[in-house]
Structures are given as structure tokens and as C-alpha cells.
Write a structure and sequence with these properties.
The protein is an alpha/beta fold. The chain is 34% helix and 16% strand.
Length: 250
């Protein structure tokens, strides 16, 4: 499984972030606004291994994105071992929500001639990502496109690694041209791939959220909850109230 995203655009302007300065001599940024151009980062990310395949570009229309993505995916498919069991788990299109009619509508070849699922591609549900030619190219090679729902691009972990790469490349820096932005982004990608970090859903953040949910106190089985338990009357005072009659009843 790989994820794809186009990060940016990033301007050639001073970027906020930490920087090393001598004591008493803070970093200063120019007040003039100079248009130095922008750059974007085309990124393929494999969460299981942390591997990143990226290319900085000045613009990312379909005429730029699609050829780059096809080259990268062809290289990934060439490195994969052959599929031993075409009917194994995850190898059938139905396992990913694709009906036979949907697959046939994109790839009219007989089922025996179509390749099994070899790679899963997660990316945004933009119109260009759903173009007929691009989807057909993917299906013909056994690549399942999985589109994140509207407002759910955070499900694509590629955006997470992009934030890390951009922060490493541009945080506290002042690139003066789009070319310089692209060079620094490439250097950050190269440094990341020397010691990639796998990504997993869950981890410490999920554990903290689970502990927070466990600390909630339900209100009598209702949908609401409180952060702290509701104080209950002591047993002795409760019995006394029952024997003498509650003041609210008078």
C-alpha cells in the first residue's frame, strides 16, 4: 500500500521555525515581500516501511502529475514479486469494494487476462485523480485506487510525512527562489530515506485518546458524560433523609 499527495505550494519567503543564533542576536527577516516563486512536492509514501519517493516541481497539473506517477508506479510494480495466488486475500478486486461490473467497465478484457490486485494507491478524491484515462491505466496494471472521503484527507498518511519533510527543509529558513525551495525539499527527502521511519495507525496518540475515553463517566446510561464522577450522598445521610423525610418534600 502506497499513498500519494501533492504538497504545497511553498513560497520562497522566510519560513517560521527554530534557528541557531548567537545569544543577543536573534534572527532577522526582511520586511520586503519579494515574489520568489513557489514549488510543490509530489510524494509517494509507503507507511509500512517509511519509504518516500518524491519529486519537487514548480506546478503540479495533471500533465505533470500523471506522467510522474506512472513512472514511479511502473518502477514499484517491476520490483514486486509475481503473485502466487490470484484468489488470495486482498488479490481480488471484490476485496476492495470493486464489483465485477465496475472492473469490466474500466478494463473490458476477460477476467482471466486481467491482473490480480498488486498494489493499493491511496490518494485524494480530486477530479483529476478520477480521470478515465488514469483510472484505466491503474486497473490494467492491477493497481487499486482508494480515494479518501471528502474532508477525510487526514486518512492519507502521506500528508503526515510531508509535514515532517517540509518542516525539516524550510523551517526557520529563507529560500530566495523556487529552485532553492526544490533543492532543499530534495535534500530533506534524501535525508529521510537514509533512515526511514514506518508509520502505523494508533501509537501513543491513540493510546492517549483511549485513556481519555476511559476516564469519562456516563450519566445514567445517557449519551452525555462528565470528566469527573458526580458526587453521591453518603449512605448514613441518605437513610436519615428517608426516615425523616427529605427537606425538598416539605
Amino acid at each position: 500500500m502506497w499513498g500519494e499527495d501533492e504538497a504545497g505550494p511553498y513560497q520562497a519567503i522566510p519560513h517560521p521555525g527554530p534557528s541557531w543564533q548567537r545569544e543577543g542576536k536573534p534572527a532577522r527577516q526582511p520586511h520586503e515581500y519579494v515574489r520568489g516563486g513557489t514549488a510543490k512536492l509530489l510524494t509517494l509514501f509507503r507507511p509500512a516501511t517509511g519509504a518516500v519517493r518524491a519529486e519537487p516541481v514548480e506546478r503540479a497539473p495533471n500533465a505533470v502529475l500523471h506522467p510522474w506517477l506512472k513512472r514511479e508506479l511502473d518502477a514499484l510494480l517491476a520490483a514486486l514479486p509475481p503473485v502466487a495466488d490470484r484468489e488470495g486475500p486482498g488479490r481480488r478486486w471484490a476485496d476492495w469494494g470493486w464489483s465485477e461490473a465496475a472492473v469490466t467497465g474500466v478494463d473490458p478484457r476477460p477476467k482471466e487476462e486481467r491482473p490480480p490486485v498488486r498494489l493499493v494507491l491511496v490518494w485524494d478524491n480530486l477530479t483529476g485523480h478520477k480521470s478515465a484515462g488514469m483510472v484505466q491505466w491503474l486497473v490494467e496494471r492491477g493497481i487499486v485506487p482508494l480515494y479518501t472521503p471528502l474532508g477525510g484527507s487526514w486518512l492519507n498518511l502521506t500528508e503526515s510525512v510531508q509535514r515532517i519533510l517540509v518542516r525539516r527543509a524550510l523551517g526557520g529558513q529563507h529560500p530566495e527562489s523556487a529552485q532553492e525551495v526544490m533543492e532543499w525539499l530534495s535534500a530533506a527527502v534524501g535525508g529521510w530515506n537514509k533512515a526511514p521511519t514506518p508509520f502505523h495507525w494508533g501509537g501513543k496518540r491513540a493510546a492517549r485518546r483511549q485513556r481519555a475515553r476511559e476516564r469519562r463517566h456516563a450519566l445514567g446510561g445517557a449519551g452525555g458524560y462528565t470528566r469527573h464522577p458526580v458526587a453521591r450522598p453518603r449512605r448514613a445521610s441518605l437513610l436519615q433523609d428517608l426516615g425523616n423525610g427529605h427537606p425538598h418534600d416539605k
